[in-house]
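Today's session is about reading a structure prediction critically. Students often jump straight to the picture, but the first step is always the sequence itself: look for stretches that repeat, for charged clusters, for runs of hydrophobic residues. Only then move on to the predicted structure, which in these notes is written as discrete structure tokens rather than atom positions. Here is the chain we will use throughout the hour.
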Amino acid sequence: MSAAVQSAAWIRAGALLLEAPAVFTIGTGRSGLALQMAAMRFMHLGLATHVVGETTAPAIGARDVLVAASGSGSTKRVVRAAETAREQGAEVVALTTAPESALARAATEVLVVPAADKQDFDGNASVQYGGSLFEQSVLLVTDALFHALWQTSGTQARELWRLHANLE
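Below is the predicted structure for this chain, in token form.
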């Protein structure tokens, strides 16, 4: 995939997030943990953000955005959530190593993360075990997306801090 296509996908993904009434995140295991960190940062931007599976997460609706991560693009829970989101009129931003996967097919925008999936037993893409490179990349990529959105917003760090948890 060319850098220009990837750049265009990132720009479109950022626009979807900013225009969404609400942003939801879903991933399993360590990918899910990385997206929980992303959800926190999106909340700091003032976006209504929810983690799928949390008891306080509402129903997804039209124009909302689901950010979904699966290295293989075939994690059943993540793919089904993406399909349900689309059925409800929501947009889906997928992070995956597999641009031809079921998750990618269900997505509005696909952000291809050039990292090994968890079954790269021969270490062709990374010597790290079990998809670690993908999971780490999800964190870095979503943090970079947050940073780009923050910088273009003109919001000062002190303003973001007002939304930081104060019941710690």
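Discussion point for the tutorial: The chain has one domain: 3-161.
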